[in-house]
Design brief:
The structure holds 2 protein chains of 2 kinds. By secondary structure, chain A is mainly beta. Chain A is built from no helices and 11 strands. In chain A, a hairpin with a 2-residue loop joins strand 6 and strand 7. By secondary structure, chain B is an all-beta fold. The chains are: A mainly beta, B mainly beta. Chains A and B meet through strand 5, strand 9 and strand 10 of A and strand 4, strand 5, strand 9 and strand 10 of B.
Chain lengths: 111, 116
């Protein structure tokens, strides 16, 4: 079965700093989803990447998909306290529509 | 579009009791998913429906778990004879399959279950 490894496990940054988190798959990635979760709440969809080399941005968050490395990165520019939360990557397992998720990365932003 | 809603948001029950959760998907979405999430882990797939048909069930879904989506709209997830290991966040998501394999799943706020 496909496994998604997220790194680092947790991250604490000073407000205003840039940061990058990663998601690496044990199998070929056919598409990757990034979600954000506040503790005790549901998942909020951020971005979906489908093609190798694809890059998408929304506000100060940029996600990239490296198909060869079977990896996706999420970059936050000039972090703010509102960026704090758990970032989860998810991917379809083959032809199935269900998603497999990584364990998530907990981001804290110090004011 | 009011998003995916789940009820209740929190449930505390005693071991051995039955519980039922409800999920209302985004209105035009024909696919509905149930996931379970424990502390420090990502969501794990339980089951999903396309319209009223239950198309896949995870081996995580023991005989004590049953899910329904009788009219292809809302869904219920019932856990019978709850055990302490059932304590988790139960998440519902819905989607509408688009072209090119695009199918973004939108999640509800979850139901947090605590079994004492």
């Amino acid at each position: 079965s496909q496994e998604l490894e997220q790194s680092p496990q947790s991250l604490i940054v000073q407000e205003g700093k840039n940061l990058t988190i990663n998601c690496t798959s044990s199998k070929t990635l056919y598409g990757l989803y990034w979600y954000k979760q506040k503790y005790g709440e549901g998942l909020i969809f951020l971005m979906m990447l489908q093609k190798g080399g694809e890059e998408k941005s929304h506000e100060k968050i940029t996600a990239k998909l490296d198909e060869k490395k079977q990896q996706s990165s999420l970059h936050i520019t000039a972090s703010q306290p509102s960026h704090a939360g758990i970032y989860l990557c998810g991917a379809h397992t083959g032809a199935n529509s269900k998603l497999t998720f990584g364990k998530g990365i907990t981001l804290s932003v110090r004011p | 579009d009011t998003g995916v809603s789940q009820d209740p948001r929190h449930k505390i029950t005693k071991r051995g009791q039955n519980v039922t959760f409800r999920c209302d998907p985004i209105s035009e979405h024909n696919r509905l998913y149930w996931y379970r999430q424990t502390l420090g882990q990502g969501p794990e797939f339980l089951t999903y429906f396309q319209n009223e048909a239950q198309l896949e069930k995870s081996r995580l879904l023991s005989d004590r778990f049953s899910a329904e989506r009788p009219k292809g709209s809302f869904s219920t997830l019932e856990i019978q004879r709850t055990e302490q290991g059932d304590s988790a966040m139960y998440l519902c998501a819905s989607s509408y399959p688009g072209g090119g394999g695009q199918e973004t799943q939108y999640f509800g706020p979850g139901t947090r279950l605590l079994v004492l």
